[in-house]
Amino acid sequence: MTTPVPGISGPARAFSGSIFTKTLYDNRRVFTAWAAATGLLAMMYGSFYPQISADSVASVPESMRGFGLNDVSSAAGYLQGAVFGLLVPLLATFYGAATGARMISADEESGYLDLLLAHPVGRIRLLLHRFAALATGAAVIAAAVLAAMTAIRSSAGLDAIGLGHFTAQAINLALLATVFGALATGLGAATRKSRPTVFGITAGAGVAAYALHGFAPQIGATWLRDLTPYQYYIGGEPLKNGFQFADTAILAAAAAVLVIAGAWRFTHRDLG
To answer: Cβ of 108: how many Cβ atoms within 10 Å?
Structure first.
């Protein structure tokens, strides 16, 4: 039996059966905007592949090779660098940071969290339902990117990449966004930090990890890549090799650990 969530009116009443469905409804525009923007960006950069020439390959700076731009002559190599290695993972990171900061921190900052928890809604249930909605949004973004790649696959000369390989990369993209969403959600649940602070810390950590993953080969410390989620997102080259189950499991486990840690602290701290 579910408990109606307070503050419901109008069309939202149909989604008031659980915190999960209400969170999806409340964030429907946010999820749609992120999915549309990321999908369109992937489509735009993916469609440039037919224009790649030998001169384009030679002009790639050595410092950018660590970001996946070391093999832009092949379809999989180009997409791994120009699409899935550059802006798309950063957008996924910022989605996780921004949305995760909304899940607990925004409500605590506004005082709405007290109203929610005054009803028969446990802290763990609240956090898990909110996080499940965030993960669903990440899956929608990944689905939009997969749809965009499928739409231009033939016209952009990307037929050499199978749909299964595209799907594998899309799943990793969803998990990457979920990892940073878990970090932001867990951080907001574990502390009393404001929404902008939670976003700033999470986004900063994401950008630092992204830079470390890209520049580690340049400083002769490739092993540092293994400390970043980006290595498990794209290091196994899913577009070339398909599903990398170990990498997928590591991303999923990292998200679970971050949420569990945040939930544990959330249940033990004073919200007053």
So the answer is: 20
Structure tokens at 20: 């999960």
Supply the pLDDT for residue 220: 86
Q: What is the mean pLDDT of residues 100-108?
A: 90
- Are 261 and 188 contacting, i.e. CB atoms less than 8 angstroms apart? no
CA dist., res. 178 & res. 172, Å (int):
10
As given in the structure block, the two tokens for residue 2 are: 């579910």
Q: Which DSSP state fits 6?
A: S
| Contact in structure between 188 and 196 (CB atoms under 8 Å) | no
- Other CB atoms within 10 A of residue 190 CB: 19
Q: pTM here?
A: 0.89
CB atoms within 10 A of CB 72: 21
Quickly tell me which residue has 């950590």 as its tokens.
Answer: 205
Q: Are 16 and 129 in contact (CB under 8 A)?
A: no
Instruction: Spell out the domain ranges in the chain.
Output: 10-268
The whole-angstrom separation of Cα 247 and Cα 244 is 5
